[in-house]
Specification:
This protein has helices at 2-13, 17-29, 37-50, 53-58, 80-88, 102-107, 109-113, 128-145, 164-170, 183-191, 206-226, 236-241, 243-253, 300-306, and strands at residues 69-73, 93-95, 152-155, 175-180, 231-235. By secondary structure, it is an alpha/beta fold.
Length: 312
């Protein structure tokens, strides 16, 4: 499997796109296919039904007042690592990478409220004190990782987008960034990536990728309506086309002063463990935008699942 992924990458660089796609198909065929569309649809539906705009408007908030976290969410391969690298080049920000702490902290809300119900329904029983307690667990984790003299810490766990409702209640002063990229490029990049992380079984089949992307897109549309003004959408194609403008907007959303080092993010020496480790070591480039067009023919099932056939 690993060799097929490597072969696909080499053939892609050589411009032999037909054989490259065949190699990636072979690689993904060897990945586990435990994707259950009905289960995913039910999960996303439960989240939307619980965290309605009305509920989020009247629900209690934590009162700790910390604005330290910067949460970066989105689909894998949508520019998340690049966004964190830009922010982590600012002297006031520490890039913590993909922290696995939010999910457990959110789930502990049921315990802290004494609710007999599971999350997300248990959030109906949440009090400000319980939200403070759950948020405190996460903030204590940040304190263990990063010295207090660094005021901001970024967490780029992509799938935290599932927990944005609870996170908005736990961290009302935090910064939330959503990275976006053309869905075809995003899904193609996922399909070409040998992910080591668990839980990404949607990425190994074109139709599963399209199905999951539509669920994600629908949930993000829900969050924009239910949490107006909370999310900053950073479009990858706009960032690489006009980096100075978009980096200035990004820093402004985070309440950070302009710093030239954010434009020279590729010079920042920090450990990057995710699949985008190579990209964050290079200046911004536009060659990844529209990459899907090189594979337009074999991507038919994905484009159909995404509902983009009419867009060409």
């Amino acid at each position: 499997m690993g060799l097929y992924f490597q072969l696909g990458g080499l053939l892609d660089k050589a411009g032999d796109y037909g054989r490259a796609f065949e190699a990636f198909e072979q690689a993904n065929a060897l990945k586990p296919r435990e994707y259950h569309p009905e289960q995913q649809e039910a999960l996303f539906r439960r989240i939307r039904e619980q965290y309605t705009a009305d509920f989020l408007a009247r629900a209690p908030r934590a009162g700790h007042g910390s604005r330290r976290p910067i949460f970066i969410v989105g689909m894998p391969r949508s520019g998340i690592s690049l966004t964190e690298q830009i922010l982590a080049s600012h002297p006031d920000v520490h890039g913590a990478g993909e922290l696995e702490d939010i999910g457990p902290c959110v789930n502990r809300l049921a315990e802290y409220t004494g609710s007999t119900r599971a999350m997300p329904v248990a959030v109906n029983d949440a009090t400000s004190q319980a939200l403070d307690q759950a948020a405190g667990d996460y903030l204590n984790r940040l304190a263990e990782l990063v010295p207090e003299e660094t005021p901001r810490v970024s967490d780029k766990m992509p799938h935290n987008f599932l927990n944005l409702g609870a996170m908005a209640l736990m961290f009302p002063e935090a910064t939330f960034i959503h990275t976006r990229r053309d869905p075809r490029d995003t899904c193609l990049s996922c399909y070409f990536q040998n992910f080591l992380a668990q839980g990404l079984t949607f990425a190994y089949d074109l139709r599963s990728l399209g199905h999951y992307y539509r669920l994600y897109e629908g949930l993000m549309a829900h969050w924009r309506e239910a949490l107006p003004g909370s999310l900053y959408d950073l479009q990858y194609e706009e960032l690489v086309a006009d980096p100075e403008t978009k980096v200035a907007e990004l820093l402004d959303h985070c309440g950070l002063e302009w710093d030239d080092r954010c434009m020279r993010f590729f010079e920042t020496d920090r450990d990057t463990k995710t699949a985008s480790y190579d990209q964050v070591r290079k200046p911004l480039y536009t060659s990844s935008a529209g990459r899907w067009q090189r594979y337009a023919d074999p991507l038919g099932p994905l484009v159909e699942e995404l509902g983009l056939e009419s867009e060409g």
